[in-house]
Amino acid sequence: MTTRAVHATYATQPPAPGPGTGRRILRAVAIAATVPYLGLKTAWLAGSQIGIPAGSALSEPSLFFTAANSVTLAMDACVILLVLVLTRPWGMRIPSWLLTVPVFFATGLLAPILLGYPGQLLIRLLGLGAEPAAASGQRPFLEPWVFHVVYTGFTVQGLALAGLFVPYARERWGSRRQGAPGAGISPDGVRGRLPSSTGVAAAAAAAAGLAVAVVQAYWAFGGTAGLGAGRAAVYSAEAGVATAVHGVCALAAGAGAVLLARGGRLGARGRRWALGAAWIGSGAALSWGTWVLIAALGPELDGGEGPGAVLLLTYAGQMITGLLSAAVLVRFLTAAHVE
Prior knowledge:
Layout: H1 2-12, H2 21-33, H3 35-45, H4 63-87, H5 96-125, H6 132-135, H7 144-177, H8 196-220, H9 229-234, H10 237-261, H11 268-296, H12 309-335
Helix pairs in contact: 2-4, 2-7, 3-4, 4-7, 5-7, 5-10, 5-11, 8-10, 8-12, 10-11, 10-12, 11-12
């Protein structure tokens, strides 16, 4: 009788629900959006010159460019794996840290593109965009259409991933976030007080983020000091939009860290805003700050001068802001016992 009862129990358990029509469509869209970038990177690694104008630094074989293309190819290929994790039943069994780490960096890399690329298109539509590199006689390193194809793909990827992650997170962690029995979350969102070191890290993130935001706002609105003569000559309104977005992300990282350090003094809505600001801001500042700092150590793609001390300090400031804010974010989530 016991055996029959056990078998009956397992027999009546419903199977893990599959994704609905909307999520299946988003999955297909996200995977399709990776094709242009993956295709270009594969072609370049195979020796193709598609999208690379004559005289570009990319047309010359280089270990640095080969390594960079290989790494970025692998990064975008991971989007396909991430999409499958978010839409397949086995994705619910993936350890939380193994999912949240790539989602964090994917958010950080894609959020500034989602925020900045539409603004850049608007600038160009209004006739305020320019081709300063060509006007100054510097060698372009990619055909203009490459940027539109790639950034359109990134924009679609970001929107699709956001549409897939929200229902996934709701299904997997929704009850814990609401303080369900056994979740280990106190009514005010955290268990106990956060250590004083968290407040110090949050204050440092806010200070660094404010400094970075001020410098980038100055450049975004036409300032050229600290850019160097070569970069100032080719700076455009479109570049200003991207710079402004990174400044806002650095500011959001610092503000989110300070709010999270308040811990239990935040209400439910305040926690959601603080988590969103810290997650997106720290991800963007850490990901892009690290990326541009590494890229600054490589050869100049347009044949111009290398970045000066102010630019390098700004890149480092972005990275440090993101790192400090991410540390506060992790500490808050750990205190809240979010799986």
